[in-house]
Amino acid sequence: MSNASASADQVHNDWLRRVAIAESMIPLIGGLYREKDVKPHIFGRTLINKSGTDILKAHRWARRIENGEAKVEDTLAVLELAREKDVTGIPLDLGRLIRAAYRDGKDVREAALEYFEKAENRAPQQPTDVVLYGFGRIGRLLARILIAHQGSGAGLRLKAIVVRKNGEDDLQKRASLLRRDSVHGKFDGTISVDKDSNAIIANGTRIQVIYSSDPASVDYTEYGINNAIVVDNTGRWRDEAGLAEHLKSTGVGRVLLTAPGKGDLPNVVFGINHEQITPDTRIVSAASCTTNAITPVLKKLNDTYGIVRGHVETVHSYTNDQNLIDNFHKGPRRGRSAALNMVITETGAAKAVSKALPELEGKLSGNAIRVPTPDVSLAVLNLTLEKPVDRDEVNADMRAESLTGELRNQIDYIASSEVVSTDFVGSKRAGVVDGLATIAEDNSLVLYVWYDNEFGYSSQVIRVLEHMAEQM
């Protein structure tokens, strides 16, 4: 046998060995999640409900660890120890834990044992009922995430959606739209329809479909729903007075708007100002997808370098409020075909940043260009800073923040000359800094931030929801 053949066999056998180890993790991960409310992940890449090859991909992505790719043997050892020590409800970022062990020259099991002994086991969170008012692009993605999260039986519990009825086959069409998505792919699991009780059953989660066009008229307790958080995805009401109509319905405790709020309504970007939500807070806004994408990056830059002023240009995928072909539209330019044109339009995202970061009040301007892609957008931050800045230094700061910083769940970082917009479909981070596109000269900095304006934003909404539930 030639050396080349022997080498190829060795690589293949090593791959099979690692796949076998990864597959042995699957029941461990499932048990920790369903029975102990522990959510294992590697630097934000979840391992729940993943195949063996998916788990290996998460490890390869974790080559950000200084010593190279995380070893699957080490991950398995930590998971086995977590089961052995009967940990409950603790955060488990395997990437950070293993990275720290490698950095400190410790045995991974020893480092994990120290972490588990110090970590405070939390009792599983009491279930909180969630109602989705509206079932469009964001509503259906929120449903997918909530259904996936209900495996542990704790935390957020999707109980109903509220929509206006559109024909006799409305229920079947709603289920079909949840099952199939042209951008995000097929639903991961099974979906069936109960016509008699007007419900959708998805992966064992029973979702009541309620038909109503009046937020104040539904008695949710009739469906076994109590003290629920209503997530308004319609955008029809964006001020406190309008959204307060939901609170008139029996069984509603709080309201979350998935659009920028008007007036004095709190606009919350999780990771930045979510601590504004207290037990007394009844209505909040999760701001916009663009505001969520850029605010964490701007905070990090402002804290490190100081922002004097800046302009935000968003290259944004088209949305449902635009026309497929030229037709009348109440807004300027948006009446022209979204599929055929780049369309300059206004955005309030730059000004909205100051609602979450008051220190940037009056420092940012913004504009938007809608482009003929269905998902994933790009924000270009053109900033003047208080002090000179170095490109490599900024990139290193962003990379470090994405791994271990306080905003690691919001900021991601990539340095690849091959990536394009579709590579970020399904990203759970609010924004992804493209390090190779960074431009720095003296006090000027241009930063490019990719963001899945649907799924990344929905992930931020879920984080706000979870925090609201903790305050109830």
TrEMBL record:
It is an enzyme of class 1 (oxidoreductase). PANTHER family: GLYCERALDEHYDE 3-PHOSPHATE DEHYDROGENASE NAD(P) BINDING DOMAIN-CONTAINING PROTEIN, GLYCERALDEHYDE-3-PHOSPHATE DEHYDROGENASE. The lineage of its organism: Bacteria, Bacillati, Actinomycetota, Actinomycetes, Micrococcales. This is Glyceraldehyde 3-phosphate dehydrogenase. It holds the Pfam family Gp_dh_C. Its EC number is 1.2.1.12. Residues 128-289 form the Glyceraldehyde 3-phosphate dehydrogenase NAD(P) binding domain. It comes from the Bacteria. Belongs to the glyceraldehyde-3-phosphate dehydrogenase family. Keywords: Oxidoreductase. PROSITE patterns: GAPDH. One of its GO terms (molecular function) is glyceraldehyde-3-phosphate dehydrogenase (NAD+) (phosphorylating) activity. CDD domains: GAPDH_I_C (cd18126), GAPDH_I_N (cd05214).
